[in-house]
Amino acid sequence: MSYLEKLFNKIEVEWIPLEEIATITIGEFVHKNAQDEEAQYPVYNGGISPTGYYDKFNNEGNKIIVSARGANAGFVNRISKPYWAGNSCYSIGIKDSSKVNWLYVYYFLKRDENKLIGSQQKGGIPAVSKKQMEIFQIPIPCPENPKKSLEIQAEIVRILDAFTGLTAELIAELTARKKQYEYYRDLLLTFPKDNLMA
């Protein structure tokens, strides 16, 4: 029996709506003119990356954020430092960290990100509603034994964090190799114009 098979051997799982284990809040609008690239706190809205920086924050960090509106509605990210959530950004905070690991929930939501994106409400601006987020089902292992449940969740997070780190290293290596290839390609295939046939 493999390590993972032992980890998940005969465990019970209870599917729980996200609203039962987490708070889901929408952020506040901050005008682009009030933002400053020199400010400390990133501003998240309906995109994949920060839309700017602000000198105040409205969330402490260790939260899951989900784009609420726009082409990327349903995109899932995690933030460990203080940030400003805009009015197109859901912030998800775990209610009881002695029962649920926020990174475990993040990885599960990230895994099902395409479901969230695929369930965008169509119209003028694509959106994922707060109700859709609230009823989203999260599998909690060993719900009757919070200590064992947290241990399993933490182990899942540890494994996925390790793979995430390896993936980032591979991407960086591939990027470096591509630049190296382009450099040598250009070097080897660039000839003085004097040598070209007329």
Overview in brief:
The chain is an alpha+beta fold and 198 residues long. The chain is built from 6 helices and 9 strands.
Question: Describe it for me?
Answer:
The chain is α+β, with helices and mostly antiparallel strands and 198 residues long. It has a domain at 15-140: Adenine-n6-DNA-methyltransferase TaqI, Chain A, domain 2, CATH 3.90.220.20. Helices cover 37% and strands 20% of the residues. The protein has six helices and nine strands, in the order H-E-H-E-E-E-E-E-E-E-H-H-H-E-H. It has helices spanning 3-7, 18-21, 102-111, 113-118, 130-135, 146-188; strands at 13-17, 22-26, 41-44, 52-54, 63-67, 76-79, 84-85, 89-94, 137-141. The protein has a four-stranded antiparallel sheet with strand order 2-8-5-6. Strands 4-3-7 form a three-stranded mixed sheet, with no helix packed on it. The chain has a two-stranded antiparallel sheet with strand order 1-9. Strand 5 and strand 6 (76-79) form a beta hairpin. It starts with a helix and ends in a 10-residue tail after the last helix.
